[in-house]
Backbone:
């Protein structure tokens, strides 16, 4: 009996109409929808018209299946967004839930933990998830930008984002990836327009990424896109192909400049410690010489004062002692040539003065 009933439903169902509806839904970009209430009632009337026994059970079964079609499950990485006749009703968390059967209510389940991305300035081939030069297609109308010092630079980057508010993401704008892509391009153009080309090509990339991400987040918040911008990553930043050789020369000159500066710094770091060391040695010697002279002068002054005190006590003895000490120093010096004459010889000899200071005449005897 059940096989026969199934056969009757199959033969009386308007499959052409259902096929057309599915084709329309498919062409419109949505998933195929089950038949509406009018289709169900029409089919039920046809089955009842056959006079088949147990028709009430079939109707009850169909209605039961229709109500059970409202059961749905939200995965852990999803959020359920329930709409009633196309208007937002509620949001459901992961797990099993129920909504009124179609066409009264329906549910959309966007993946809120999935990290999505858009590419600006290039398009990757196939399913590649990473930028590789030569394996992507350039889009110059997006990548060519004007810098703050009026130079043109080719900027290619990606934007990574997550769904923050699924309701805004689904209902505020259509074609969300394209909207985010346009907003990212506008944000990057604004930041590049305030940056000099030298910074954009060298050390300013991190700052550009951070400022662009912050500005893009402000834009998507104003548009109520319901997304959280995770990162803006520069993939390739270079001058246009027409002037890339000139920029290479400039980069080479900049590298030479850095090399010369580094060499000069190394030479300075080598010479300055040596010069400081030599200066310290000279200063130490000068300090030692100064202290030596000061001590000698103080000693001589003390010695003179001691002799002067003795001189005041006994002048003749002191004079004679000084004379003997002086003569002892002179006669004991081997470098001085000496001529010694007796008193008689000294009277007969012609006194002379040694102009070169090599010979010193000495007269012996009493004065």
Residues:
């Amino acid at each position: 009996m059940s096989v026969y009933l199934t056969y009757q439903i199959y033969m009386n169902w308007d499959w052409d109409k259902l096929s057309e509806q599915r084709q329309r839904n498919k062409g419109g970009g949505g998933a195929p929808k089950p038949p509406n209430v009018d289709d169900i009632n029409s089919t039920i009337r046809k089955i009842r018209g056959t006079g088949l026994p147990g028709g009430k059970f079939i109707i009850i079964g169909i209605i039961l299946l229709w109500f059970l079609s409202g059961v749905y499950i939200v995965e852990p990485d999803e959020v359920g967004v329930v709409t009633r006749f196309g208007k937002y009703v509620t949001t459901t968390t992961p797990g099993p839930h129920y909504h009124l059967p179609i066409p009264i209510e329906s549910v959309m389940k966007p993946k809120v933990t999935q990290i999505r991305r858009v590419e600006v300035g290039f398009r990757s081939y196939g399913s590649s998830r990473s930028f590789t030069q030569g394996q992507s297609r350039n889009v110059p109308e997006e990548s060519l930008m004007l810098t703050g010092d009026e130079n043109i630079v080719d900027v290619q980057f990606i934007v990574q984002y997550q769904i923050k508010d699924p309701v805004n993401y689904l209902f505020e704008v259509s074609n969300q990836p394209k909207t985010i892509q346009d907003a990212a391009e506008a944000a990057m153009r604004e930041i590049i327009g305030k940056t000099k080309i030298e910074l954009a090509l060298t050390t300013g990339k991190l700052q550009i990424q951070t400022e662009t991400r912050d500005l893009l987040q402000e834009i998507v918040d104003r548009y109520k896109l319901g997304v959280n911008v995770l990162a803006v990553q520069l993939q390739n930043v270079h001058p246009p192909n027409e002037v890339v050789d000139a920029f290479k020369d400039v980069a080479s000159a900049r590298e030479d400049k850095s090399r010369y500066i580094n060499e000069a710094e190394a030479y300075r770091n080598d010479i300055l410690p040596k010069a400081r060391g030599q200066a310290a040695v000279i200063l130490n010697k000068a300090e030692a010489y100064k202290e030596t002279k000061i001590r000698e002068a103080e000693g001589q002054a003390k010695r003179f004062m001691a002799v002067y005190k003795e001189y005041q006590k006994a002048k003749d003895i002191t004079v004679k002692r000084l004379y003997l000490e002086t003569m002892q120093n002179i006669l004991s010096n081997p470098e001085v040539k000496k001529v010694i004459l007796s008193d008689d010889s000294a009277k007969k000899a012609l006194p002379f003065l040694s102009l070169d200071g090599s010979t010193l005449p000495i007269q012996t005897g009493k004065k």
In short: The two ends are 173 Å apart (CA to CA). The chain has four domains: 1-68, 116-239, 242-313, 314-363. The longest helix spans residues 244-313.
